[in-house]
Amino acid sequence: MDARNRDTQEQPTKEIHEVVGVFDNLAALQSAIDQLLTDGFDRSEISVLAEEKTVAPNRGYRRAAELEDDDRAPRLPYIESESLTEGKASLVGGLFYIGAFVGAGALTASGGILASPIVAGVLTGSVAGLAGLALSKLISDRQVKWMQSQLERGGLLLWARTWTEEREREAISVMQRNGGHDVHVHAVMT
Q1: Which tens digit of pLDDT belongs to each residue from 91-126?
Q2: Would the pTM count as exceeding 0.85?
Q3: What does the alpha-carbon distance between residue 147 and residue 26 come to, in Å, rounded to a whole number?
Q4: Is residue 106 part of a domain?
Q5: Segments forming the whole domain that contains residue 141
Q6: Domain for residue 176, yes or no?
């Protein structure tokens, strides 16, 4: 076989297993994910269904059950609520700091008296901080919309990639103990 033919041949597919479950609320989903992480699952092995605007055009689904075993269903890595909260706080604080620094710096550079840059910094920082609050609200609203959309379609999907039968049993047990239903193993072709 020459080099040209070897380069054009497809790589063999590999079968990997994952456990999938459906959850009826965010608290149960969060609890299952926390337990999976505590039990040694890596964040990269855990995923949830992507937002409706990503899923609907590609898959056209009506119920979560239609996507449980679809290895092409658009997924997102799970981001815990604490990280989202930290990100939103950083956004607000960072914008406040930048706004204050720019406002105070601009007034100082223009020759203002000492009190004026402080007032300008507080005002511009506050405006920038409010913009950060508005952006963090958009992030929260987007998360709520993601959750509501999936709940309307039958539940929140959670996948956990497993590498051994022991990990499969562990993931099934964790999901079931935390309120997951229709929990099962399925194969994913890579």
Answers
A1: 556 656 566 556 656 656 666 555 566 666 666 666
A2: no
A3: 7
A4: yes
A5: 14-189
A6: yes
